[in-house]
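Posting for a labmate who doesn't have an account.
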Amino acid sequence: MSSGSPSGGRRTRYAIVGTGARAGMFVRALTADHAEHCELVALADSNPGRARYHNDALVARGLAPVAVHDAADFLRMLDEEQVDVALVTTVDRVHDRYIVAALDAGRDVVTEKPMTIDAARCRAVLDAVERSGRRVTVTFNYRYNPVHEAVRRVLAGGEIGEVGSVHFEWLLDTRHGADYFRRWHRDKANSGGLLVHKATHHFDLVNWWLGAVPERVYAEGRLFFYGDEQGRRHGYARDYDRAHGAAEAAGDPFALHLAGSESLRRLYLDNETYDGYHRDRNVFAPGVTIEDDLAVVVRYSTGATMSYHLTAYSPWEGYRVMFNGSGGRLELEVVENDHVSPRGGGLRGASPHSAEAEQGWARVRVHPFWRTGYDVDLGDHTREGHGGADARMTAALFSPTTAPDPLGRRATERDGALSLLTGLAGNESLATGKAVRVRDLLDLGDRF
């Protein structure tokens, strides 16, 4: 979706619900890079302190603060602020609440991935799209990464022929990977686990790369590294619940010290009185209900298969994807960073998503049959903002354009559902020990 002018040439009016750290990218995009076409008019959250944090940042840049609403007053906010598009960046388990409400109120929606966390909520979103006639855009920023675009071009060009199989290995290091076990994501009821919250990125990429629909999924997984029992078994456990104010957290390489970062302190630590949310939980404390080591096998509508493995406790971060085709092989390798995770003082500053954390390299190599292999030109790939994807995605979302997009990067509710269903089928397989047909979870009918 691009913003355009809803009426009379005026700027498109946006409101953001959910004002944690991820909202910051959209606040900046709407009030700086694309302010000519867009207007951020409101922020909504159950925690007024976090919303105020973003307003303070606007004032520091010489801009006027925007209206702040309680998330419980979401519908009233849409009307009072004459909102055209609702932007959803809340905890995953309530994405559908705001998506459906906005659609039924006649607004378009831009939502963070995953679109929601279970089949019933997914159906509710799809039904709301159908009855409202409005649009949902899911922010799969990885589609806008030049490396991933290069892979799509090679595959679409037939350089390795028909794809028969894919192997996808994703490694989260003990900095970024550990962060999912400090936050609300550690509870599967909030996030759907890493097969939903994180791997939907990857499942969407494969759907997009192959132009295929997942049909059958089998998964194995467990909590191997994080959590209280695992921490004791491997010798990493420390006796504290959250790092702030805990003497036991001093020198813990897995601790996140909110007071050591001005932005994290102001966004989270200073606002705990409103809702009691702790951003710095001990990754080896009780209460972790998600897996950290997951293996998945997927069969697609094209007949291709994928073996996928996610590890959330690697010493380095990155991913490898290999495509085997009827005319050769394509290999993608990305190293997000190869540094040793900090020791002796815990984490004190940059988000795992920051430019500081992205210090690696990328390579796409093609091995055709009976010809010398070659590397693919990756164009303007950078190491900032998910390989330059964030800036490219927000430009596509918020700047009106009539230029065609031959890569089909814009992700709709259909794409959100298909990526989500791979993860949900994986979770069902974990629970039952059996392979799961995607259509048994949610019959998408002829539309999909």
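Reply:
Got it, the structure tokens are right above this. Residues 142-226+288-386+405-447 form a domain with the Dihydrodipicolinate Reductase; domain 2 fold (CATH 3.30.360.10).
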